[in-house]
Here is the input.
Amino acid sequence: MTNHFLFYTVERHGEVYKIWRRQKLKDEILVHVDSHADTARLPYSAQQYRDEPEQIRGSMVVAEFVWLGASEGMFSEVWWVASEIQLKKLSPAYFAAFEGNLKPYCRCQVTTLDGLPKLQVPVILDVDADFLGMQHLFTTAQVAVEALKKKLAPKLITFSRSENMLATKELKEEAKKFEEQLKLAFINGRDKEQ
Here is the structure.
């Protein structure tokens, strides 16, 4: 396994799309760990977005960037990992939209940390701190990182702090731990494999 490892932190989750574009991702496996699927469709095509980014960017919200990346061929497969508590809150229409928006471009799966299989190839790991919970803590950073470390070998990690989505001081502190523990877990793991 390569020792090259990239870790980017952003404040607003949609900013990771620009990182993915700079990295020239193509046919990758994305593991998207988040309370939200972020696969809403833009009222524009990916080509229009590339041709007229300034006009269109103003109408974007955070919820489209996974769809946009998939529609550009960045991903051959998307795994959306959410907490069991969060998944139970969502309507069947939400899951249908997730699948319907991605299926034309790539394979897609919804799962929990426990349900995520061990993926045997390097992946793009995209993590939003709100996975831990937005109002109440669903899981701890340590539990999440340990589960991800057992199942993934990311070559690129993007981490969104999403502080505006976290309602309590406890959640914000746990999000900081999440970011640091992710870095340490995967960087230390790479050092041991040399």
Notes: Confidence is low (pLDDT under 50) at residues 190-194. The chain is about 40% helix and 20% strand. The two ends are 8 Å apart (CA to CA). Helices lie at 16-22, 46-51, 53-57, 65-71, 84-89, 92-102, 141-151, 169-193.
